[in-house]
Each structure stands twice: as structure tokens, then as C-alpha cells.
Design a protein that fits this description.
- The protein folds into two domains: 72 residues, Roll (Ubiquitin-like (UB roll)); 69 residues, [2Fe-2S]-binding domain (DNA polymerase, domain 1).
- The longest helix has 15 residues.
- The chain has five helices and five strands.
- The protein starts with a strand and ends in a 5-residue tail after the last helix.
- Helix 2 crosses helix 5.
- It has a five-stranded mixed beta sheet, covered by helices on one side.
- It is 33% helix and 15% strand.
- A hairpin with a 2-residue loop joins strand 3 and strand 4.
- It is an alpha+beta fold.
- It is globular.
- The structure holds FE2/S2 (inorganic) cluster (2 copies).
């Protein structure tokens, strides 16, 4: 079947198998930041934003993205020019192996679009579906708080 979607600001017209996952499709289109950790909806490492809302792309049929916007961290920053929220993760030490980081950043990005200065509890609620085996989560909460502070200071682009 044919599918049209916008991935990180670029329109794509692709042929997909009817049962293909959104995870497989975005990786096929070059969004390598989107990771498969479990493929059954448990870990959150495959998180993308679908029309601005976080979804676990391993659980979403690619066909559901017809006519919609998909965003991954590739749209936020590059290794040489990190988005301030990504920089906050680096600066506070919230990135260790990095496997969970793209999904965490997207969930945090969406949270900060709704709540300018979330409490630690609100941050923990937002990232509750995203597993991190390295950091113990405290550093991730600090990173989101720092990202929120920088956003409120007008340092986001
Ligand atoms: S790979 Fe999708 S939730 Fe784990
Ligand atoms: S930094 Fe390793 S899983 Fe989160």
C-alpha cells in the first residue's frame, strides 16, 4: 500500500507492507535515533511524536501515519548543534549509554510544550513509560528541569 507522511519536515511517499510498524518505517527513512528495545511496547525507546504526541512506534502501524506528522530527535538538533534540551541532558549527566535518550528527550519536549515548569513528580509521570537501565532517573529529571529553565529564559530556538 502507498503512504504519505511528513517526517521531520520532509514529505515522503512510500510503499509499505500493510502490517509494517511505524518504528520500521521511520528507521527505513533514516531516523536511526528511533530504537527498538523490546518491540512489544514496554520500554519506550521507540518513542516518536505523532502529530506532536508521544507514541510507541513499535505498537503503531505505519499506515496510521497516513497524512500525519512524525517527529524524531533528528528534527531537534544534530551532534554538532544540539537542541538546548538535548544539551541539558548532556550537561547534567543524564546520558550514559544513550539508548533511552532520544525517547526521553521527545517525551520531555512534549511535556514542556504543555507545562512550562513541571514539578519533579510531573516529569516522573511523563517519563514513566520510558525505561532507563543506567541513570536511576534522577539525572533525567534534573535535565528536564534545566531544559525547562533554559526554555523560560528564551534560550530555545
Ligand atoms: S521498542 Fe517500542 S516500547 Fe520498546
Ligand atoms: S542512559 Fe542507558 S538506558 Fe538510559
Amino acid at each position: 500500500m502507498k503512504l504519505q507522511l511528513e517526517l521531520n519536515g520532509t514529505q515522503h511517499y512510500v510503499e509499505i507492507e500493510p502490517g509494517a510498524s511505524l518504528l520500521a518505517l521511520v528507521r527505513r527513512l533514516g531516523a536511526w535515533s528511533v530504537r527498538s528495545g523490546c518491540d512489544v511496547g514496554d520500554c519506550g525507546s521507540c518513542t516518536v511524536l505523532l502529530d506532536g504526541k508521544p507514541v510507541r512506534s513499535c505498537l503503531v502501524f505505519a499506515a496510521k501515519a497516513q497524512g500525519r506528522k512524525v517527529t524524531t530527535v533528528e528534527a531537534l538538533g544534530t551532534p554538532d548543534d544540539l537542541h538546548p534540551l538535548q544539551q541539558a541532558f548532556v550537561d547534567v549527566g543524564a546520558v550514559q549509554c544513550g539508548y533511552c535518550t532520544p525517547g526521553m528527550v521527545l517525551v520531555a519536549y512534549e511535556l514542556l510544550s504543555r507545562i512550562a515548569r513541571p514539578s519533579p513528580q510531573e516529569i516522573r509521570q511523563a517519563i514513566a513509560g520510558n525505561l532507563c537501565r543506567c541513570t536511576g532517573y534522577r539525572k533525567i529529571v534534573e535535565a528536564v528541569e534545566l531544559g525547562a529553565a533554559w526554555k523560560s529564559e528564551g534560550r530555545w530556538r
